[in-house]
Amino acid sequence: MDLKEKDSRILQALQKWAETIVQRAKESGDVYMELPVRTLRNVIYDEEKGFLRMGERLARREFLNVAHAKRFLQTSLVAAVVADLIREGITTSLRDVYYRVKHTIPGTRENTVDQQTETDRAIVDLETMLGFVREELHIFSKGGKGKVAGPFELVEHVYTSDGKVRTVEFDGTNLGMGGWPVPPIVEPERVEIKKVDADFVLVIEKDAVWQRFHEDKFWDEHNCIIVTGSGQADRPTRRFVHRLHYEFKLPVYVLTDADPWGWYIYSVYKQGSINLSYLSPQLATPAAKFLGMAISDYHRFNFDRTVKIKLKDVDIKRLNELRRYPWFKHKEWQQEFDLMEKEGFKMELEAGASKYFRFITKEYVPAKLEQKLFLP
């Protein structure tokens, strides 16, 4: 499906949504919309699919209900903005949408919105009701944090000021120090992945560590695509990893610090997140495996004791939260949690430099790949 065809489908969905509200008003006099409940009680870990998803509970938002009227109005106004963006053939930021919607209601001192969180929530309303992600609705957050390099070729389809679409080509083996910067929107209509020759995807938590892998051309020596989300991954980076896996059947391995925060980042790539559970089918990669780093690696690779970082109370609290997540109930993970608590320390990926600068790319990761030392 090309970009323009997708836009046409979204406009049709918006029109149908609006017509449904009008028809209800004509038939019963009630002006309301129905949308999925976005609370923790309606978030389900689907063991069969391997990711967090939103349940089936719906909420009714009524225009003539004082408690609902303002949010009803905000969602409707944002829907109108989305329609304008699509018709004009342009994209815009979450912040721009806020200012586009914000104004004082005539005859009152009441603003349509006071904080950006209100328009952000309205965008989520539309995502969940229409079944299109905000990037497809021509709305993005700040620029993506992700970087990618390796044997792939892609084309970006970009709107120009006259509403036309131009193409920009990238070769993932012929990039500068920054690799290919993941753009805010990576939907297939915007980013066409034309060719992939890699055997797997390696997701690296930290930008600085990704730089080590890129400079050492790890992607060339091991025929893989290296990705970083520069910490907790944003939506575009997770979406791009998801696409590489599902469109090209590439195994995905994740490399993070050996601490509860890094391990949670891994789970977000794999199972999705609670806040974005409604997007798990587009963002999560349940087949992903954890490559490292693990506390057990301290002994396996004979690290010096100087790399140990003592656990703080906040680390232990977060570790115990991970223990309770159903997707971390695997025996192997529980053993790793026990080991961390028993030994009382965590480790960073940069600990490999205590041996020599290229230890992580020349020995650590190759050994774990060869021996298949993964956690589920």
Describe the protein.
- The protein has 376 residues and is α/β, with parallel strands linked by helices.
- It has two domains: 138 residues, Arc Repressor Mutant, subunit A (Orthogonal Bundle); 224 residues, 3-Layer(aba) Sandwich (Dna Topoisomerase Vi A Subunit, Chain: A, domain 2), CATH 3.40.1360.
- Helices cover 41% and strands 19% of the residues.
- It contains 13 helices and 17 strands.
- The strands form six sheets. The chain has a six-stranded mixed β-sheet, sandwiched between helices. A three-stranded antiparallel β-sheet has the order 9-8-11, with no helix packed on it. A two-stranded antiparallel sheet has the order 1-4.
- The longest helix has 26 residues.
- It is globular, with a radius of gyration of 23 Å.
Provide the residue-averaged pLDDT: 94
Examine the coordinates and then state which fold CATH places here, giving the name of the CATH topology of the largest domain: Dna Topoisomerase Vi A Subunit, Chain: A, domain 2
> What is the CATH architecture annotation of the largest domain?
3-Layer(aba) Sandwich
Estimate the strand proportion.
15-25%
Main sheet specs: 6 strands, mixed
Number of strands: 17
Supply the number of structural domains: 2
- Number of DSSP helices? 13
Low-confidence stretches: none
Secondary-structure blueprint of this entry?
Blueprint lengths: L2 H26 L3 E5 L6 E4 L4 E4 L3 E5 L6 H20 L3 E2 H8 L14 H15 L8 E2 L6 E3 L2 E8 L5 E7 L8 E2 L9 E6 L3 E5 L2 H9 L2 H4 L2 E5 L6 H14 L3 E4 L4 H12 L8 H4 L5 E4 L3 H5 L8 E2 L2 H12 L6 H13 L1 E2 L12 H12 L6
Parallel strand pairs: 5-6, 12-13, 12-14, 14-15
Antiparallel strand pairs: 1-4, 2-3, 7-10, 7-13, 8-9, 8-11, 16-17
Helix pairs in contact: 1-2, 2-4, 3-4, 11-12
